[in-house]
Amino acid sequence: MSQSKETIAAFRFGLGFAPGQRVDAEPAFLTRNMRNGDPLAALSSPVSLDDRMAMIVRLRQENQKQRESGNPGESEALKKVRGDFRKLRLEDARRLFERAIFSDDSFFERLSFFWADHFTVAPKVKLGQATWGDYIDNAIRANVTRSFADMLIDVVLHPNMLLYLDQRGSVGPESRVGTRRGMGLNENLAREILELHTLGVGGAYSQTDVRQLAELLTGLSLNKRGFMFAPGRSEPGPETILGRTYGDYGKAELDDIRSFLHDVSVHPDTARHIARKLAVHFVSDEPDPDLIATLADTYMQTDGDLPSVYVALLDHPAAWMPLGAKVKQPMDFMISGLRALGLERKQIVEISPRRANRILVTPLAAMGQPLGRQPGPDGWPEEAEAWITAHGLAARLQWSLLTAERFARRHDPRAFLDFALRDLAGDSLRFAVSGAEKQTEGIALVLASPEFNRR
Q1: Are 131 and 103 in contact (CB under 8 A)?
Q2: How far apart are CA 26 and CA 9, in angstroms?
Q3: Cα(176)–Cα(170) distance, integer angstroms
Q4: Rounded to an integer, what distance in angstroms lies between the CA atom of residue 337 and that of residue 398?
């Protein structure tokens, strides 16, 4: 069955078809907003990082008061701050769905998901959960159309990454704080920067580079307002990483860390690592070697300018091979289904936090992709086998049925099939949909079909 370039563009580089939204396969159309930053920046969270940090301080204070009171019941003040915290977490999740469902630039949304996974944070403590929405808005989305160095620096210095990789516990052993308190290095952040974020597994670094980078990163920490740089925690003296020396015997400087992050961002191994990850995510688990080489060359020629790399991806013939080599991850699957159904904005914007949890967050977990809870710092798996499991398929089918009941009672299944799948719909699916006993069952058959779940 032939596939139009518009269909390939919608499924491979976007989030499917949505009523009233144009789909064009030309790279110039898909990247039309790339120099303008986040097209939905106005929908960023209205809750500032300062306010998020202050919420956690209040939560800790009220918990302390509760313990000291000896009262077995929660105080009204503690109930309120706990409620505010839960609402913030669910509002961050709802906003993530809102932007992706109603955006007319779903390539940007897909890229933001890709980078959020590349720079995985899975908040383990309440402070991380409270600041996660700010991390997505200001470390990831704000940098999707800038350079890789810009994103890397903002990610590494964000409270969420410092919390997730336990950087608060990393102190130079010979620093003023380290000698006084007997504290030492934590290599988590240094290792993940080299192994996952930049050079990649097998990249040109050694254990010595990891330790030297861990020493350079001492000084990165947190206070009640968020990120802080504390020279008193920094290991004295210069560090040599990947053959270059940063810092000296004077006072530690944050600019030395920024210099290293910029340098490693334009390393050839970083270019190859990012090129391969983009090709695997968007095209195939075993991408064309020439596609990877082209992306890596563009990356190096432009010092990691991300929009230039996206254009190179879209310009390469291998990017337009027939669909079916990849499986939609649960987030992509749910969003593309809700987009195709043509929801009204109020159906997502005006729902309560409890309902947002029930219809958006809980189904993701059932399908094996709990929001913000990646199994490790290497993010979600890409291979189809990780998602096409008995449990995962059952959860997708259940979601398809429930979603059809909730949102698709007025849809004609055959018309929906033609709109949502275009030239991807096979004869057997058309036959099944036309013979469905109930209208909602026909819609569910489309959503649960292999054609809709692959890309």
Answers
A1: no
A2: 9
A3: 13
A4: 13
- What 3-state class would DSSP assign to 183? coil
> Could you write out the DSSP letters of every residue in 233-279?
GSPSS-EEETTEEE--SSS--HHHHHHHHHHHHTSHHHHHHHHHHHH
**Considering the entire predicted model, what is its pTM?**
0.95
- Residue closest to 191 by CA, chosen among 166, 158, 220: 166
DSSP letter at 74 equals P
H/E stretch holding 229? strand 226-229
> Helix or strand or coil: residue 145?
coil
| Token output for 107 | 């390539």
> pLDDT tens digit string along 300-321?
999 999 999 999 999 999 999 9
pLDDT of 72 strictly over 80: no
Please give the Cα distance from 23 to 17 (Å, whole number).
7
DSSP three-state, residue 46:
coil
Strand partners, 229: 220
Closest CA to 145 of 276, 14, 308: 308
Domain boundaries, the chain: 1-164+266-455, 165-265
Predicted confidence (pLDDT) per residue in 21-32, tens digit:
988 889 889 998
Query: What's the CA gap between 442 and 411, in Å, rounded?
Result: 10
Q: Which two tokens stand for residue 141?
A: 């989305």
